[in-house]
Amino acid sequence: MKLYLYGIIDSSDQIKESIYGLEEGSIVYNIPFCDIGAVVSKISPPIQGVTEGAVLVHEIVVEKLMEQFTVLPVRFQTIIDDRDSLLSMMQSYYKDFKDNLARLHNKLEFGIKVIWPADKVKANIIKVLKKDEQKTIESDNSPNKRFIEKKFEEYKIDKEFEAKADKFIKVMDMFFSRFAVEKKLEKLKTKNLLLDAVYLVEKNRENDFREAFEHIKSDNYPDFKYLFSGPWPAYNFVILSKKSGLLTDSEQTVLFDKVIQCQALVGAGSI
Question: CA 6, CA 53: separation in Å to the nearest integer?
Answer without folding.
Answer: 15
